[in-house]
Design brief:
Length: about 550
């Protein structure tokens, strides 16, 4: 007879939706196991340390938002803890048959293992990505232009049709007068119908060109046919805390979940190899540094082919502890996968940044895109503002809780959508709610309260505007991030449930300003480098 204490554990939903006991154990394991997981990635990477194909794949990237390996580890260790407590689970829902075999082998107290939404390679998706990248490559060659042989380069993402670099570097581009400084875009989420006009614009923008315009056809085909070289990774891998993850690793490699990212990353690597072969000199490189596969391709190529180049990784954002790869580790330094120096935008981010490796070379830099915070604003605050980021699970839950809120039924709610997110107004359901195209910095000045969760600088940005942040559910990792930088507790609230969400909103909307202007300015200076100082690196002097 199987007597269950927990009827269902759906591991495919976000952890804040787990049973309270499961969630608490899972979160503790997630905090504790970070170092073990990072060291294991370093161990299994030794045999591929000089292979760019390894560093751009879903395993070498060490990006837990793409790979499920860290999530699987946390589930297994949670099940182990539940077994110690003699707590039984009737049904556990997972997405991988190889993972099911590990659970069965360990004889955890689970009656039924249900597999749903198993991730498999989509041939249609792979073909679509190939044609998309080929089209960009052809257009880049058609609209190729002559550039100086001695250059400095600044890396950024071109989202949809917007050529502006302000989302990443504020007004830096306008302040650089030298002709041999180029802002190099990576095209993402641009509709295929708009690519022709967009790449034509890049051709006529004096300080920009596409990496693909300098990469040979042979190198580009190497990027495209990455999947033809996967067999070299077929081997037995070291165990992770007595768990054999070999089949999980091979499965993730074969499914090509991050294939588009891999192509971009390999193009970055071959871009630097091509520049070297064409006798270019690079004085300074500034990489928008999230330490993903894209950045590993950029920095591995730069460090290999241009050893004397001034190399900086700019992290123009706040602290996201749920995003493991953002904080570099020892083996990434040893194998030259990261920039020579990392630039952060506020003193509060130094300690969290060196969590995994204390010897990182960290510099303080100007918070370019947050420079508007230097001015104080006294607009009447009345908006209820909601922000959606790139996490679909979190977004769905935020929209759901806003729509179901009794308190917000008669309120008008403004949504601000991440520019790379595809989200339609009809997805909001409630007709009183609407999506605004105004810049976030203008909306937050008029807001009385701000609702969001997950990986986003808007949380700290809101706090620095004196606007309290409501995290509508028990999102432990967002709370962990805020605690890591000692965020003022009076300016953010983590809700336990829907009832608590309504009560929190009601209380906050009744209150006047929580902090004085003097205190707010102190908070701003703690989180963002907003004023000129000899202690801050000046990018303009590096070119």
């Amino acid at each position: 007879m199987f007597s269950s204490d927990i009827s269902v554990w759906d591991t495919l939903t976000h952890p804040y939706n787990y049973n309270d006991l499961v969630r608490d154990i899972y979160f503790k394991k997630k905090k504790k196991l970070r170092k073990n997981f990072n060291e294991w990635i370093g161990e299994i990477s030794k045999g591929f340390k000089n292979d760019i194909d390894w560093w751009v794949n879903i395993i070498g990237e060490r990006n837990n938002l793409n790979s499920d390996l860290f999530h699987y580890l946390c589930i297994l260790e949670t099940l182990k803890e539940l077994k110690k407590k003699k707590i039984y689970i009737e049904n556990i829902e997972i997405n991988n048959n190889n993972f099911k075999n590990i659970i069965l082998k360990k004889k955890f107290l689970v009656k039924n293992i249900i597999i749903k939404n198993e991730i498999k390679r989509s041939i249609i998706k792979v073909i679509t990505i190939i044609f998309y990248r080929i089209y960009i490559f052809i257009l880049a060659k058609i609209y190729k232009k002559s550039i100086y042989s001695r250059i400095s380069i600044v890396d950024y993402f071109l989202v949809r049709n917007n050529l502006s670099t302000k989302r990443y570097y504020g007004d830096l581009e306008n302040k650089i007068k030298k002709k041999n400084v180029f802002f190099i875009p990576t095209i993402v989420n641009t509709n295929v119908r708009d690519l022709f006009g967009l790449i034509k614009k890049i051709k006529f923008k004096k300080n920009s060109f596409l990496k693909e315009s300098l990469i040979s056809v042979d190198y580009f085909l190497e990027s495209i046919f990455y999947f033809s070289r996967l067999e070299k990774f077929n081997r037995k891998y070291n165990k992770l805390l007595k768990y054999d993850f070999t089949q999980l690793i091979l499965g993730e490699l074969k499914c090509l979940k991050n294939y588009n990212t891999i192509i971009i990353a390999l193009n970055n690597y071959f871009f630097f190899k091509s520049l070297k072969e064409k006798k270019f000199e690079i004085k300074t490189s500034i990489n928008w540094f999230e330490n993903t596969a894209v950045d590993k391709g950029w920095n591995f190529g730069l460090n290999r082919f241009f050893k004397k180049t001034n190399s900086f990784g700019y992290q123009g954002f706040t602290c996201y502890k749920d995003f493991l790869c953002l904080d570099p580790v020892k083996h990434e330094v040893r194998y030259q996968l990261i920039p020579k120096k990392i630039v952060i935008i506020g003193k509060k981010y130094f300690k969290p940044k060196i969590e995994f490796y204390k010897k990182l070379k960290i510099l303080q830099g100007f918070a370019y895109r947050f420079s508007y915070l230097r001015e104080n604003h006294f607009k009447k605050k009345k908006l209820i503002l909601v922000s959606l980021n790139l996490d679909d699970k979190i977004n769905k839950d935020i929209v759901k809780i806003v729509n179901q809120s009794q308190f917000l039924k008669k309120k008008r709610v403004v949504f601000k959508i991440h520019p790379a997110l595809k989200f339609r107004e009809k997805d909001l359901i409630d007709k009183k709610h609407f999506i605004s195209n105004e810049p976030f910095k203008d909306l937050i000045k008029k807001s009385k309260v701000f609702i969001t969760a997950g990986t986003s600088s808007t949380i700290v940005e809101s706090i620095c505007n004196g606007v309290p942040v409501v995290i509508p559910f028990k999102d432990d990792m967002t709370e962990f991030s805020l605690k890591s930088i000692n965020s003022p507790k009076q300016l953010y609230k983590v809700c336990k449930n829907e009832k608590n969400f309504d009560k929190t909103l009601s209380n906050l909307l009744k209150k006047n300003s929580i902090y004085s202007l003097k205190k707010l300015n102190k908070i701003k200076n703690d989180y963002f480098n907003l004023h000129k100082s000899h202690k801050l690196i000046d990018f303009r002097k590096l070119f």
